[in-house]
């Protein structure tokens, strides 16, 4: 009996592996697996839903490609006669649609069930989809005793990106399959798997880039689209002039704020003075790290990079305070933010591949180079692209991918006047190709949540659009921004 028991224990893992192989092998491209699921958001609210996995080829250009899994949550419609499913496409690239549904946008997901099933999708390489191509590398070993420069930052990021790329290639991942065309075809596969005649697309930031590509490739499968914070086919790299305009807008708002304007009569002039000072002489700041003092060098590059990477987001409200303190020699907060940036991960293989694949036209690259010479932040908003793309195999999809899109599909564009990442001009440029479109402009909204949640009127417009009713508002004005206080020296 002991010998028999030993043989049984030996065979269990072998049988398990055989079963797992057969089980996975029973799926083919386009198959979908769905089960009941209790969805819980970040506030611990629960709602009945379904959890699904869609099986798609990792690279449709390779007949022998392995299958990967795309995860999604489906919230069933509350309508007795639901319309086309609504698929939410998160930004990034690299953000999770399922995580978005758990957060502050949860009430909007629930409200949109009036029209059809609402689906929170984790795009290929992201979140609960398999594989999740997160890079585990950080820049924690950045030499803090050296003056941080653009070239040093790019070189070290390239080294870490190379490690991440090699790791995933060694796992058998075909990285060339991670591009926006493949993701657009995933949406078509999901439509077919759900047996839906058409789908609605609801997207933000990079998600709009994916939605527009899906419209180009599968126009007949799309009913309506809501695109907030638009990134068009040739908008992956940011224009320095648009970033500069966002700073001009902040300058105007600071001037209009009676409290701030006493301490900062000229915000752009203040910025230039700080950057010029750092260019002449970087500053050494002592920051507490693990019960010790760590010396951190703050340079012009650090100041430009941190500003550009948060432009057009909620962090904009701290810009006046940070530059005001820096003008008085206080770089303590900046040094802390720089350390946090170095400790955070470099991103994901998915996000690198998606942006490098989308690329930029020669005309746009030339414009960026030209504008970078005369703007305060230069081309810092585009770091580390395109300098890192050859590490990932230079997977550019080509000029045809970046051509303007023309369509009769009804589209609601949503833009914020303070969005320095996806400015109003992006939507206006793309909108020229859409004969049935509306542009909702939100005065005082920056990138992200404010494009959906800063006013209840935004939801009203979105629901009107899906109903096919007349749009009640095309311009919504928010209350003035509340900037972070300058501190005890304000007004001196």
Structural commentary:
The chain is of the alpha/beta class. It folds into 2 domains: 28-133 and 176-233 and 404-492, Alpha/Beta hydrolase fold, catalytic domain (Rossmann fold, 3-Layer(aba) Sandwich), CATH 3.40.50; 150-166 and 237-392, no CATH class. Helices cover 40% and strands 16% of the residues. The chain is built from 17 helices and 12 strands. The chain has a 10-stranded mixed β-sheet, with helices on both faces. Helix 5 crosses helix 6 (206-217), helix 9 runs antiparallel to helix 10 (300-310) and helix 9 crosses helix 11 (319-327). The radius of gyration is 24 Å and the shape is globular. Residues 1-24 have low confidence and may be disordered.
């Amino acid at each position: 009996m002991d010998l028999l028991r030993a043989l049984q224990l030996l065979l269990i893992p072998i049988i398990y592996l055989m079963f797992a192989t057969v089980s996975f092998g029973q799926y083919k491209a386009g198959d979908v697996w769905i089960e009941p699921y209790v969805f819980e958001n970040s506030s611990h609210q629960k709602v009945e839903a379904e959890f699904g996995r869609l099986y798609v080829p990792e690279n449709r250009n390779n007949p022998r490609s392995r299958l990967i899994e795309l995860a999604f949550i489906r919230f069933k419609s509350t309508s007795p006669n639901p319309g086309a499913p609504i698929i939410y496409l998160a930004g990034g690239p690299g953000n999770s649609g399922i995580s978005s549904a758990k957060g502050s946008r949860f009430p909007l997901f629930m409200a949109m069930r009036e029209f059809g099933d609402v689906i929170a999708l984790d795009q290929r390489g992201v979140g609960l989809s398999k594989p999740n191509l997160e890079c585990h590398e950080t820049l924690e070993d950045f030499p803090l005793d050296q003056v941080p420069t653009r070239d040093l930052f790019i070189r070290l990021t390239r080294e870490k990106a190379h490690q991440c790329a090699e790791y995933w290639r060694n796992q058998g991942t075909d990285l060339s399959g991670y591009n926006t065309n493949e993701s657009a075809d995933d949406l078509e596969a999901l439509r077919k798997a759900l047996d839906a005649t058409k789908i609605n697309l609801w997207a933000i930031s990079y998600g709009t880039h994916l939605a527009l590509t899906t419209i180009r490739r599968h126009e007949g499968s799309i009913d309506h689209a809501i695109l907030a914070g638009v990134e068009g086919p040739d908008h992956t790299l940011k224009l320095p002039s648009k970033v500069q305009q966002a700073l001009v807008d902040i300058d105007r708002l600071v001037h209009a704020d009676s409290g701030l304007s006493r301490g900062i009569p000229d915000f752009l002039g203040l910025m230039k003075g700080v950057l010029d000072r750092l260019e002449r002489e970087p500053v050494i700041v002592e920051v507490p790290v693990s019960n010790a003092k760590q010396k951190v060098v703050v340079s012009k590059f650090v100041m430009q990079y941190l500003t550009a990477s948060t432009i057009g987001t909620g962090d904009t409200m701290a810009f006046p305070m940070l530059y005001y303190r820096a003008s008085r020699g206080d770089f303590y907060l900046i040094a802390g933010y720089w350390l946090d940036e170095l400790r955070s991960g470099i991103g994901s293989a998915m996000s690198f591949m998606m942006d490098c694949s989308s690329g930029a036209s020669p005309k746009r690259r030339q414009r960026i180079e030209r504008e970078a010479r005369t703007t305060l932040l230069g081309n810092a908003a585009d770091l580390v692209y395109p300098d890192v793309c050859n590490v990932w195999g230079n997977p550019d999809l080509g000029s045809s991918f970046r051509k303007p899109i023309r369509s009769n599909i009804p589209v609601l564009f949503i833009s914020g006047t303070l969005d320095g990442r996806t400015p109003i001009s992006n939507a206006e440029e793309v909108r020229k190709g859409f004969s049935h479109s509306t542009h909702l402009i939100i005065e005082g909204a920056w990138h992200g949540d404010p494009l959906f949640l800063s006013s209840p009127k935004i939801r009203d417009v979105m629901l009107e659009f899906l109903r096919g009713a007349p749009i009640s508002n095309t311009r919504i004005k928010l209350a003035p921004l509340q900037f972070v206080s300058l501190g005890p020296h304000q007004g001196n």
